[in-house]
Design brief:
Length: 126
């Protein structure tokens, strides 16, 4: 049996606002309500289930995107004036990286989660 990630819960002070922010930034279909969750589907069948939580410990979520999607999402990051970094240590502000022959960038969600987009999986560049 193949093991696949189906969904994960994203703690949020305001699940509706957080899910809407996410879909707008990533250019995805709007969230769907399911019980206490605001569910956002991503392309590989995984969903992010935004749920109300007063305490939102920072989590890291990394997304593999195409070159065109990277351009679109990164454009929205810059349009919004979001602080972003080329590295997880936040030592290269306002930059992107070119790890593994692709591109990547990190930024924080409104709830403090550390988001990342990459165009090549880690270790794929030889």
């Amino acid at each position: 049996m193949a093991v696949e990630l189906n969904h994960t819960i994203v703690a949020s002070r305001d699940p509706k606002a957080a899910a809407e922010d996410f879909v707008e930034l990533f250019g995805l279909a709007g969230p769907q309500s399911f019980g206490p969750f605001q569910v956002v589907e991503v392309a590989n069948g995984v969903s992010l289930d935004f749920m109300k939580a007063d305490d939102t410990p920072s989590q890291h979520y990394a997304f593999l995107v195409s070159e065109d999607e990277f351009d679109q999402i990164y454009g929205r990051i810059k349009e919004r004036g979001l602080a972003h970094w080329a590295d997880p240590m936040q030592s290269r502000p306002g930059e992107i990286n070119h790890n593994d022959g692709g591109r990547g960038v990190y930024w924080n969600s409104p709830d403090g989660h550390y988001l990342e987009i990459i165009t090549r999986p880690y270790g794929s560049g030889g």
